[in-house]
Amino acid sequence: MKVCKFGGSSVADATQINKVCDIMMADRERRVVVVSAPGKRNKADIKVTDMLISCAERALEDLDVTKEIDAIVERFASIQRDLDLDNAIIDEIAQDLRTRVDSDKSDRGAFLDLLKAAGEDNSAKLVAVALRKRGAAALYVNPAKAGMLLEGEPGDATLCDVSYGFLHDSIERISWQPDNPIIVFPGFFGVNRDGKVATFPRGGSDITGAILAAAMKADCYENFTDVDTVYAVDPRVVPDVKHGISEMTYREMRELAYAGFGVFHDEAVMPAFRAGIPINIRNTNHPELPGTWVVPNRRVDTCKVVGIASDSDFVHVYVDKYMMNREVGFGRKLLQIFEEEGVAFEHMPTGIDNITLILRGSKFPPEVQVRVLQRIKKELQPDSLICERDHALIMVVGEGMQHTVGTAARATRALADAGVNIELINQDASEISIMFGVREAERAKAVQVLYHSFFAE
Fold it and tell me: What is the DSSP string of 343-360?
């Protein structure tokens, strides 16, 4: 059995949805398909999820959203017309959107999640109808009824472990129906214990696909997107990149996805890793190509560094205090301040008398920053406290690095020769990644010189 996931570009219009139907019907092992909300049809277009967020924000301000709803319905209607589907599906989608907009708005986060989830939910309904139009047995499955139980904050939910059993049993029952239908499952959302819709972080359809693959103990999780392979570096940063990655390990994918590889969500690696299910990242537009495989282990003698990823919008909070290493509980007190203010940290390099906390800028807005820094000064009385925004992190990743001498030297030499100042350097204990912190303005240059240093030959 194979679980397949199709991203926003793969369901953006009728032409792409026909490709999805072709792929699903070409292999009888493909029994579950997870779909995203329709993405951009061209560079100037707007993703349906962004349209829904805009609609939700206007509704929360008690503004008229008739135009917004009409525009969203028309996106789905244009696909329906081009696929020559019955009008009933559009009537259903329009009613669904109106019901969501008219729902309780007392909890802003919950209301936003409810509206955002409409993209994937209605996309799945539309794809199910399209598959049936093509002669395939297909059934839309609602995540709430299937047992996709989530917990955590709106827009950042995680799966409850009991969900794996619920999902397995639900899908197993459907699979035993006489026509053995293709199960069409919306990505990105589930429900919490109160029955309210909750969403994963943006890009969460990857997570849904991995969860279902793990729940069903699938032979393979095929993640279809709009690139032929996962490249060694982001082509938007290094346009002349030619190195596709044919195979990488779960650990390598997790490191690279976390650090900015947008082709796959970093949180989607863990369910597949725990279940030992290989991930195959492929192109909807060229399904005959092998794509990139993510597997438990690979030979590393032919490729020391597998990829270089980068991400921006990081904040550095530098705390310095003489004899910090002798002050019992200093680190705990510092982290407790961030915990009480609801701020998670990403990394924490330390010295004898100093600690640097690296945070996501989006999770550390200026008003929270002011409050946190005031508490650190008052409660910990540091000798020095510096907070700097607009930093970027770059990750050089490869299983083979732990067996190779001089990788860090090669990277630092390349950055120095290019005049890029390294603000921070850190290597994890497993030695499969080296992290560099640079100013955001130097991010592109740093990635380019590192790519050419490791992959030019």
Answer: ---SB--B-SSEEEEEEE
Distance CA 245, CA 253 (A): 11
pLDDT digits (tens, 9 = 90+) for 118-162: 999 999 999 999 999 999 999 999 999 999 999 998 999 999 999
Residues 6+ apart with CB under 8 A from 264: 206, 223, 225, 230, 253, 257, 279, 281, 294
- What is the token pair recorded at 323? 């004899």
Give residue 302's pLDDT. Answer: 53
Tokens 């010189």 sit on residue: 449
Q: Taking the CB of residue 214, how many other CB atoms lie within 10 A of it?
A: 23
Query: Do 166 and 146 contact (CB within 8 A), yes or no?
Result: yes
Give SS3 for 249. strand
d(CA 232, CA 241): 8
CA nearest neighbour of 294 among 319, 320, 261: 261
Q: Mean pLDDT lowest for which of 182-196, 259-273, 316-330, 340-354?
A: 259-273
What predicted TM-score, i.e. pTM, was given to this entire model?
0.86
Q: Tell me how many helices (H) and strands (E) the chain has.
A: 14, 19
Note the pLDDT tens digit of each residue in 24-60: 999 999 999 999 999 999 999 999 999 999 999 999 9
Q: Are 412 and 291 in contact (CB under 8 A)?
A: no
Segment 265-273 shows an average pLDDT of 84
First to last CA, the chain: 40
H or E element, residue 292: strand 292-295
Strand 197-199 versus strand 189-191 pairing type = antiparallel
Q: Beta partners for 89?
A: none
Kind of pairing, strands 30-35 and 292-295? unpaired
- Of 230, 227, 234, give the one whose Cα is nearest residue 448: 234
The sign of the dihedral angle between the CA atoms of 289, 291, 297, 303 is positive
Query: Quick check: 249 and 311 in contact, CB under 8 A?
Result: no
Helix/strand/coil for 185:
strand
